[in-house]
Design brief:
Layout: E1 11-15, H1 20-35, E2 39-45, E3 59-63, H2 69-74, H3 77-100, E4 109-115, H4 120-127, E5 132-136, H5 140-154, H6 188-199, E6 206-209, H7 213-216, H8 219-226, E7 231-233, H9 255-260, E8 267-271, H10 280-293, E9 297-300, H11 320-324, E10 328-331, H12 336-341, E11 345-350, H13 354-362, E12 367-369, H14 375-386, E13 390-392, H15 399-410, H16 413-433, H17 438-452
Parallel strand pairs: 1-2, 1-4, 2-3, 4-5, 5-6, 6-7, 8-9, 8-11, 9-10, 11-12, 12-13
Helix pairs in contact: 3-4, 3-6, 5-6, 10-15, 15-16
This protein binds uridine-5'-diphosphate-xylopyranose.
InterPro entries: UDP_glucos_trans (IPR002213)
Family: Belongs to the UDP-glycosyltransferase family.
GO molecular function, one term: quercetin 3-O-glucosyltransferase activity
């Protein structure tokens, strides 16, 4: 309460992990909480700093992350995350401690919400006696699969090799050993350290999960029973937050008028997210496969998609663009939520990062899954075997296989059935986010808890 009896907004500090797939849900959460009357500060790294322009109501504060260029360009995510946590701990603590000295009526911080990968923020909150809440931006199935991987590591079974890869993992249907979220990066030690830290809730008062009950029960029930703090499943958050750009790259909106010109349910959208990389040969096979499928396509070819080159557009095979002409549209970065919601889009070829998968599910768009690493393999199996709204392209990327997979999803009976199931699933997810739905109610409970701090 303010001095004149006015209720002042409580001040939250949000600490996102510096990758697109993590920045998006954290900023969506900030937007939702701001609309519920909280004031929001985002404390972020200099590396992959979010753009403040689209969020004038938030206070953005960069802290030095001390990441050397060679580490950033190595793309070694576990090593980068370890360095970010180690290097940002003190500047984060100093910054929040300063806020706690504030004389402004809403200057003091009432809670720190941190991405699970920014786990050192929990110890900052603890040492400053501020409540904290963890945000998990992934699925419950990935969380459980990661736990299982830790057990295998303890038993000395990782790296997995040979025929076991094809076998199902007992108690983790529908995963096979090869779908487990193990590391593709050199050091197993770095991976283990990150994953062990990410598991721990520590002194946090609750966990927010960007998932929705109807997709993840009964696993969710199991995890809720084991967790000593409340879990709030409030996803998919992009459906509860107004569409504000959270992109690190500039979206190319010219694809929307192009989509407007395409027939309803005719376009395949292709994007491998913000981190996944492919070889130049794979890029060429994708290109010729999309040319051969003879259907309209919108393809995100972002800088860095091809290993070892920034100017990826130049890596496209000669004659490809001219050959497909207006039937194909290539952009460096798309306004993905709008694209998936467009009536022309009937399928999504995705790497199955959780944001992409849930954005597709929320629009009733079935998927071709081409996971690259980590959680993407788990999500791909859930898309294909549990929710049954997609199929996985497992074979080597080869133009005929690409063209056949796209046609299977887009025009064949099997794909049409997947689309029907996807539309039905979209309806169930929508119910979750509507007033009275599971995510809506959990959001109310979360807000009540934070108002009580
Ligand atoms: C990473 C990991 O790869 C992923 O597995 C994990 O679940 C989250 O962190 P990323 O690869 O970027 O994320 O995938 P994803 O989770 O799908 O997030 C990408 C985000 O970028 C989505 O919200 C998507 O809408 C957005 N995007 C993608 C665009 O806005 N435009 C594009 O052209 C492509």
């Amino acid at each position: 309460m303010g001095s004149e009896g006015v209720i002042l907004p409580r001040h939250l500090v949000l600490v996102p992990c510096p990758y697109q797939g993590h920045i998006n849900p954290m900023l969506q959460l900030g937007t939702i909480l701001h609309s519920r009357g909280f004031s929001i500060s985002i404390i972020h790294t200099q590396f992959n700093a979010p753009c403040p322009r689209n969020h004038p109501d938030f206070n953005f504060i960069a802290v030095p992350d001390g990441l050397p260029d060679h580490l950033i360009s190595s793309g070694n995510i576990p090593a980068i995350l370890l360095a970010v946590n180690a290097n940002c701990h003190t500047p984060l603590k100093d910054r929040v401690a300063q806020m706690m000295q504030s004389e402004k009526p809403n200057g003091k911080v009432s809670c720190i919400i941190y991405d699970e990968y920014m786990y050192r923020a929990e110890s900052v909150a603890y040492s400053l006696r501020i409540p904290s809440i963890m945000l998990r931006t992934n699925t419950v199935s990935t969380f459980l699969a990661r736990d299982f991987v830790l057990r295998l590591i303890d038993q000395g079974q990782i790296p997995l090799q040979g025929s076991i890869m094809e076998k199902p993992v007992p108690e983790h249907y529908p995963l096979r050993y090869k779908d487990l979220p193990t590391t593709i990066f050199k050091s197993l030690n770095n991976f283990v350290e990150v994953v062990k830290n990410v598991r721990l809730v520590g002194s946090s008062s609750a966990v927010i999960w960007n998932t929705v009950d109807c997709l993840e029960n009964p696993l969710l029930g199991q995890v809720k029973q084991q967790c000593r703090v409340p879990i709030f499943t409030v996803g998919p958050m992009h459906k509860s937050a107004p569409q504000l750009s959270t992109s690190l790259l500039k979206e190319d909106y010219s694809c929307i008028p192009w989509l407007d010109k395409q027939a309803e349910n005719s376009v395949i959208y292709v994007s491998l997210g913000s981190v996944a990389c492919i070889s130049e040969h794979e890029l060429a096979e994708m290109a010729w496969g999309l040319a051969k499928c003879n259907l309209p396509f919108l393809w995100v070819v972002r800088p860095g998609l091809v290993r070892g080159t920034r100017n990826v557009q130049q890596s496209l095979p000669n004659g490809f663009k001219e050959g497909v002409g207006e039937r194909g549209r290539i952009v460096e970065w798309a306004p993905q939520e709008e694209v998936l919601a467009h009536k022309a889009v009937a399928g999504f070829w995705s790497h199955c990062g959780w944001n992409s998968a849930v954005e597709s599910i929320a629009e009733g768009v079935p998927l071709i899954c081409r996971p690259n690493f980590a959680d993407q393999k788990v999500t791909a199996r859930y898309v294909t075997h549990v929710w049954r709204v997609g199929m996985q392209l497992e074979e080597e990327l080869e133009r005929d296989a690409v063209a056949a997979a796209v046609r299977r999803l887009m025009v064949e009976e099997e794909g049409i059935e997947m689309r029907e199931r996807a539309v039905e699933l979209k309806g169930r997810v929508e119910i979750g986010t509507r007033r009275g739905g599971s995510s809506f109610k959990d959001l109310d409970r979360l807000v009540d808890m934070m108002r009580s701090f």
